[in-house]
Records
---
Amino acid sequence: MRDFEYEAPTTLANAIAVLAKNNGSARPLAGGTDLIDHVRCGRLEPDVVVDVKKIDELNVLELNDSGLRLGAATPCYRIYGCPEISQQYAALTDSCRIIGGIQIQSRASVGGNICNSGPAADSTPSVIVLGGICVIEGPGGRREVPAEEFCTGPGKNVLKPGELLVEIKFPARPANSGSHYRRFIPRNEMDIAVVGVGASVVLDDSKENIVSARVALGAVAPTPLYVPAVGDAIAGQPANEDTLRKAGAVAKELVTPITDMRGTAEYRVHLTGVLTERVLQAAISRARGEAICTKIGH
Amino acid sequence: MAEREVTWGPRGSHTLIGKEVSRIDGVEKASGAAKYTNDMNQPGTLFARLLTCTHAKAKVTRLNVDKAKAIAGVHTVYLFKDIGENAECNYDGELVAAVAAETADIAEDGVRAIEVAYEVLPHVVDEQDLEAARAAKRLKYDDDGKEVPLVDRTVGDPDKAIADADVVHTGYYGIHTISHMCLEPHGAHCTWDESGDGPKLTARHSTQAVSTTGPQFASQFGLDASDVRVICNYIGGGFGSKFAADIWGWAAAQMSKDTGRPVRLMLDRATELKTPGTRPSGFANVTVAATKDGKITAWKSHHWGTNGPQGGTIDGNQMPYVFDPPNKHVVSQGIATDCGPNRAWRAPNHPQLCAITDTALTDLAAKLNMSPVDLYKANLDQLDDTAKENSKLYAAELDRAAELMEWEKKWHAHGKGGNGPVKRGLGVALHRWGGQSVKCSSEVRIFADGGAQASIGSQDLGTGTRTVIAMVLAETCGLPLEKVKARLGSNEYVYGNPSGGSITVGSVTGATRRAALEATGILFDKVAEKYKVDAKTLSLGDEAVWSDKKKVCSWKDACRLIGPEPITATGPSPVADGLTSKLVGGVQMADVSVDTETGVIRINRMVAVQDCGLVINEKTAKSQVYGGLIMGIAYATNEERIMDNNSGRYINADMETYKLPRIGDIGELIVEFYQPDSEYNRGVVGLGEPPVISTGAAIANAVANATGVRVPVLPMTPKRVLDALAQA
């Protein structure tokens, strides 16, 4: 492991200044659950590690009438520890509950997950389907990027040198809505997704018809993939098995997975269909106020 | 001397033996106080890092370590390979060089600074494709170049028996190579010190064999065996792969000798997976025939696989497993692959033999519309010579396992596992093992202050060996557990057995019981003389000496008679005195759910019913079975070495992609020892290996019962499950 300097600024301005000064050779550290591993293995060799956990703005967790503010360094356990967030933004807390084990969840953040920009990131599809907006601060000021536009390739994103993800803003949840995230892993827990699916649906007042839906897929493309065509295909349709099958079929057409030791492309396409159906079904159940079984595969 | 009868005493008479006793070193281990080899950090220790070959087959054509040696803090570079005679590397991960430096980071810099180049040679790493191996000439050949099998064995007339049979089943089965994946990698911390009159070399070695690795270090360096001290107080897994001093142990010793500093060399995780051992693979075409009542009349199998460069596979002489039909023909062929070599893996051959035999038999049962339990029972009169001894036990164990599994209630015909996408099913398999005691001594000392200790040059693999030794000593002396000491983990104690083959518990407890009985017999003589009682009437219990239920004196008072020279007695092993025995059997059943849309298997419940004679410590014995089941769940569902045919490399040699089970993969485990009085009276038999044998076959059979489709090759990854369903 290469030696590096450690900085722990307590203000956003100082953090931006340190990041900007090092012009791309500094890495922000939130929970560190990915970064430390990357540095130890030599995949990343930063000159400076900037601990951002001591900055107030990055630890915000605020739910109000206009929505949810999620500080980029807020660890998973705080997110799923809030019953109202678990109820309203269920896909997000589904993700937070399956990222690693309890130790990891005590450190790892959703902001870190999205900045790490892995195609198989478990929280990114949830952030996308819940309409998350990434709030970015940098030497040039503040800008906002929709979550589905944040990642640009494996390990790559829209952040420019010196920029820092401060928080993710989510709009308030509409009435009759429900969401879910589920991944396929070969084991029953704590594994990297072979395919991940996040979905959010809004039903009509009868709770029998889909008004709108957002679906995002993980691990089947170079980035977490928002697939509006799936939502378009089922908007206005009855919330039944035929519709779900249609959604699965559309999703399978949209993915371009790779073959690796975790699964062949064909296998990932198949799983995309299965999981899209199952995740949408669970999101619909939640929109109807029903409990769902979140055990993987069952 | 008062001779004490060499028995374990009547069943039910013990305060410790047979009870559930927590490990005496459990707190040290759980709290991190226990020091493993990788924790050894003597002042001045240098840290070593390794350069390994990145090709399946290659010749080193350039190896320049000058730049590595020039780095400040690098003290020495050790070469495992060199250009010239020793240039050939035979698998990805083979050791090339080691760098020892002030810190691990500097050693890594040193490794990066080594200039190495290879001439890459053609490779074969596919263990499953027999035709490809044949084309590449990687099988066994006679002097004329004709392909010959490793085993080609015929008994009776299998072809006629198959022709005459009521039912014939033909199938393909297999099981991939796995690595040992010791949580604590292989390695040693070596200190070379020729000052003073102590041992010249101290090897704090992660080993299953403190008493027998010393001479291996000694002969490498021209030392006397007495010049080498080997210490291993705790070990984080060995599973059969840590019996040798090993070239990396020698390297650590050599680098210590060269630098005058202690050197710690532990394999890194990737090298741990690639280099110090694997369990061989086997893939088989099987034909098995039976009468309509389920009596197996013939077995034919042709299996192949690899154990690495040596060109072996699983042992054809033991196929089929446990059952021994009157007509059989077994052929086996080994593929010499450019993969890491094999080493004994917990119950060598048996899990693979079982995964091929018991799966074929379950498919035969399905064809007969029989429950596999009934098929097994119908064939308990035709078992192989080793299993024969257990034929009555198997019947009882099958019944008991069925009760614990609720087999009758849950059983359904093949493929009737439910209407939804998730199917549920049951499977069963059975196994045998030896577990006989071997050469081992235990030295028991009783001191005038009442202290008692047993010391043995054996080791505690994490199985609870230290605890059972203490239990036997305490029981024999009538003392509470915490008042005795069990010392092991050093070759400076009397010779103890290497821990492999499930031989340890019988060897160390038998030897300790014998020594403790002799030592307390000497104590009884002293008590008899002082208190004017007949030594033959004396017994020990509750920290006192008793004569016909009357207290003679306290243990402390008795020990005061000893004087400055402690009573010392050395107990031998093995002795045919009834304290220990051999041969065990066991039955395992699995209840699984299979998601037929994703291919994921969930273990609902595993049942293991195991005999192992007299159980010394019910708690640590159960832990052995839990561990066996978990390892079995691993190799049944996701654990495998993945070789890339193109590059010839081992591509999942890390803890992320080499998939071991998480807690959520394990399900409910029910463990019960089959221990009627007849078992107690057999004495102690080893248990380490048997519980891992039939787990894989039982799970595979449950998947077949659930779905009606055989997933032929273990591990049954989700992909293989879906492929099998698609092809059905």
---
Amino acid sequence: MTYASAVTTPPTVVASDFATIFGVPAEVGAVVREFRSCELSTFARDGTPVTWPTTPFFEPDRRRFLITSSIGLAQKAYNIRRDGRVAMLFSTATGSGLVCPPCVLIQGDAEAPDELGQLDERFESMTRLLLERQPVGITLMGALPAPLRHLADWYCWRLFIYVRPRRIRWWPDGDLRESYGEVVL
Amino acid sequence: MTAWRAIAQELRRYDSAVITARGRDGYPVSFRCVPVPDERTGTFAVPIPDALGVEVSPAWLLCHFHDEKFWSLRSFGARGFLECTSDGWRFRPTTFVAGMGGIAASIRLFIGGRRRAQRYLAARGLNPPEIPWERMTAIKREVKAQLRSSP
């Protein structure tokens, strides 16, 4: 099963769904599947957490998230190589189509290998999903004439960052004052 | 302009912010809230339930936006500290960090990114993979057709 098909498969049918794998409610799985971005936090050298939005791809067969980052924007990878403790907050529902989704906080351990990710089927699958969700990307890709495309190569030279969840918390109405659900792995 | 003032100005463009601090277990903890500016103290009041388990620690504030089509991206960040006072939790900013949004940021991203990418490769003696532009163009066409045919 490709990543794209895994994330679009209804949760009732699959054993490869985030919710099934980690024993969390289907609504939490839907957030992970449908949200366009999450807020990824890493630790800087001085111990300050640094948080920027990113697009995570869940790999059900490996029970981990894959996040890619251009080698020209590699600070999060450098941070992870020093300290692998990360957090991913899913709190931006825009574009997901979900109504009143839970807020989901996943803490985990990340790895960021030095070498560049392969531009293989997995990469193609991610590209396809991203273009489906971000149609402007289609226009941008076509806007650069072929002789100038090498100027944009750097953006496609990607580092692959892997995050294994260790603690998942969710707030059913997104209200942090209310009690939350939790799974510790 | 102080970091506090820059953040207070930018915050008006967003509904809420994400604050990240260190949790009691040593991992980062992020939560979404509506920071309330307090010019007198140069801080932002942030409501944090005890159950979240955050500690007084270095902290980060992030605001970001994208539209329904995952575009019109804009963001900014801020370094600072999370403090626990008699009035509750406070984020004390030290540095404003520009993010995405606008032509200047895009140019900065493109030029700086390309330069850093070349340095990354040179430092490790890596040869970059050839970008399969033809395959990516084919994927682009397929997705475009699929989006046209979907309701």
